[in-house]
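Sample entry (198 residues):
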Amino acid sequence: MILETEQLKIETEDARFNSIYPIHIKKLSERHWTPVEVAKLASDFLVHKPKCKVLDIGSGVGKFCLIGATSTDGRFYGVEQRAELVKLSQRIAETHHINNVEFINSNVTEISFSNFDAFYFYNPFYENIDDSLLIDNKLVLDEKLYFAYTEYVVNQLKQTPVGTRLVTYWSMNLDIPEGFILEFTAYNGKLDFWEKKF
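Predicted structure, serialized as tokens:
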């Protein structure tokens, strides 16, 4: 009974947060946007020092960054290819006076990870290999892109310094570079918390 009550609380909190989005965005929430509880857990782990800079790789409508920015004292950056989603994220941040967040309209391959202290990865390239529920039809999707983008992320993570933190959600296929140690896991192994130790 306690578990059912807690699950209902989480679902209610998520529905309340999603109310800031247009209907067509809300419909994509369960599959594409980070749940509130997951975002809070991940943000708390990632923001491990003052002025910590967190990059959300494939930020979509900015949900993870917005939650992280309002629940921690970190600075959150979201990189997203879709200009209209970046504009929506920026508008919400401005409307709600969230100043410690920034959204970048770019491809992840144009981003140097050396500018950040921590990273959030919610399987952002999966659309390239599974078209069962697309966000829209505005991007060219290709299986080769999935592997190219993933390889870029892994190579960038390899170059990060000791102490870098990473949270992965529903990203079991990401080849975590050597040196990142799994600190703990949640949601039946779907949410993993890593720190680079060597």
